Amino acid sequence: MAEGRRLGVVVENVLSNYAYVGLMAGVTLFLTPLYVRWLGAEQWGLVALCITVQAVLFLLDAGLAQVAPREFASAVEDRAAQWQLFVRFRALYGRIALAAFVVGQSAVGWMLADTQFASVAGAELALRLVLCQFALTFLNSAPMALWNGLQEQRRANVRQASFLAGKHALALGMVGGGWASAWAYVLPFVVVGAIEVGLNYRAVRRRYADVAAAKPVESVGSAGLLSRIGGFGVAVLAGMATTQIDRVLMASWLTVDVFGAYAVVVTFGLAFMNLQQPLQKAFLPRVVSAGAGSASTLFWLTAVLCALPCLLVAWQAHRVLVLWLGAELVHPDAARVLAWALVGVALNGLYAADYTRMVAANAWRVVLFINLTILVGQAALLAWAVPRWGMVAGGWSWALCGATQFCLGRWWALREGKGS
Questions:
Q1: CA distance linking residue 321 with residue 335, whole number of Å
Q2: Domain-located, residue 225
Q3: How far is CA 378 from CA 58, 242, 312, 333, 409, in A?
Q4: 312 in the same domain as 279
Q5: 281 & 306 share domain
Q6: How many structural domains does the chain have?
Q7: Closest alpha carbon to 364 in 17, 42, 70
Q8: pLDDT in tens, the chain (420 residues)
Q9: Same structural domain for residues 156 and 71?
Q10: 201 plus 245 within the same structural domain
Q11: Could you list the residue range(s) of the whole structural domain that residue 140 is in?
């Protein structure tokens, strides 16, 4: 009976996670073409830069978003420990967000100096606003980690979906209502994001009001917490760099309009990467407690629900892009970029089960080795290929990333003697 209830929670979380991913996919599929048309190539290129800056700043997460739910899952029966974990993660996220915000605001002029974006109208304001958006989104990670780790993902998804709808409703109203500028796109995410953070933190405080003044629990002391997440944080930091290095380098190597076209394609590819996240989020607490058996189930579910759709869309990449954007907005190289990127995303999905086991086992040295290998390979490939083949090289870098992850992940799993 207890096992049946636990399985029911996993199924509920998977369905809830996929519903949220479906919402995000709908936003990407239906709203991105509107934003591109209303903003124009130059302002959309600036939006792409803002998105890239925020994504790079999230490297400061250093694996917290993946490790924090594991810590909460290990304290599922102890409300006092949960509160103490939340307090420490809240402080950690807050300090990182504040430091990044202050340094980033001081460096805006330097980021724009001698770049093609310096002459784009509203560039400085847009970057300053996206730094505010980053700080708020980063702070919101603490309550999200709590709910995800305690397998209350439906609660987290409902709250995220509600605020996401508000952000885009306001953004559409501003951009489509006469403010066709990048700053008008970012501002609603700042305003609604501030409300979201305040309400989420209030919900957590009310939940733990009876234990908020409890004596700190030794097992979740700051020193012990940092020692458990430190190594994995470095490993994941390198991994997150592999997902951003293409846009970081290509922002300076491609023209504004071509970079904007590349960013649209990558946004589409990343939407498919989200297909694996509902399964990972739902199964991580199970893998922590049940081990390789749950990881094997995760492998085959990801193969069917993530890898297969990616390969089918890669096969018809040009038709899909024309259907999505319209022929006039599809760059001549976009289909090749998308096809290669989706091959990489499919292989990354197949790696997800092995990676989830690594997170559960705290095998951070293996993850670090894999990610550093990928990072070096991507940097070399992009430096050699972008000057010769332009944005297509970005798709190759995604394929290289996924292939390396899958091969080395399988090697680790088989070496452990518990491969799927």
A1: 7
A2: no
A3: 19, 7, 25, 19, 18
A4: yes
A5: yes
A6: 2
A7: 70
A8: 455 555 667 778 778 878 887 887 788 778 888 888 899 888 988 888 888 888 878 877 756 777 788 788 877 788 888 898 898 889 889 998 999 999 999 998 888 887 788 788 888 999 999 999 999 999 999 999 999 888 888 898 899 999 999 999 999 999 988 888 999 999 999 999 999 999 999 999 999 988 876 655 454 445 556 556 666 777 877 887 788 888 888 887 888 788 888 888 887 887 787 777 777 766 766 666 555 556 777 888 888 888 999 999 999 999 999 988 888 778 889 999 999 999 999 999 899 888 888 877 778 889 999 999 999 999 999 999 988 898 999 999 999 999 999 999 999 988 876 544
A9: yes
A10: no
A11: 13-220
Long-range contacts of 404-407 (CB under 8 A, 24+ apart): 404/370, 404/373, 404/374, 404/377, 405/347, 405/348, 405/351, 405/355, 405/370, 405/374, 406/347, 406/348, 406/350, 406/351
Residues 387 and 245 in one domain: yes
| Global confidence as pTM | 0.67
Angular region, 122: left φ>0, alpha ψ -120 to 50, beta rest: left
